[in-house]
Amino acid sequence: MFSFFQRHAHAAIFFLRAGSGMVFIYHGYLKIFAAGGIERFASYLGGHGFPFSQALAYLSGGAEFFGGCMVALGLLTRQASMILIINIGVLLIFIHRRDAYPQMEQEVQMLILSIATLYSGSGSFSLEGLVKRHGD
To answer: Are 25 and 72 in contact (CB under 8 A)?
Structure first.
């Protein structure tokens, strides 16, 4: 029974990428495109002492939205994952460093998923895999 899963283990990379990418897309969308999202996030960053909070809010939201799109599609997955790792790392170090685990649980989970996609890459069910197959 488990031989099926062993033969198709590469599908796990797809689910990892697609799931984590969708979470980043959702949160980036709320920051950039939802009404008042960027203002709320910029205010949040400013309240934590970040200079240029409006610009950083766009930068962080854009990294989440567009980086999430790239990860979910499997296009430049490792590069996008690195950007997302930096984005989450800054959030954890400068905002959540004194929080108890329950307050930073989602960020820690997304950091772990981003590290996993950095190591695993895009896999065969991806735009990169499609380009490689048709480029031969």
So the answer is: yes
Summarize pLDDT for 68-117 with one digit per residue, the tens: 999 999 999 999 999 999 999 999 999 998 889 989 999 999 999 999 99
C-alpha distances (whole Å) from 118 to each of 16, 88, 98, 111 are 11, 14, 27, 10
Q: Which residues contact 79 (CB under 8 A, 6 or more apart)?
A: 70
CA dist 31 and 41 (Å) reads 7
Lookup: tokens for 130: 């499609």
Structure tokens at 6: 């062993």
Query: In this structure, what is the dihedral angle of CA atoms 30, 105, 70, 74, given to the nearest 10 degrees?
Result: -140
CA–chain centroid gap for 77, Å, is 10
- Long-range CB contacts (within 8 A, 24+) of 45-54: 48/94, 48/95, 50/94
Q: How far apart are CA 61 and CA 101, in angstroms?
A: 23
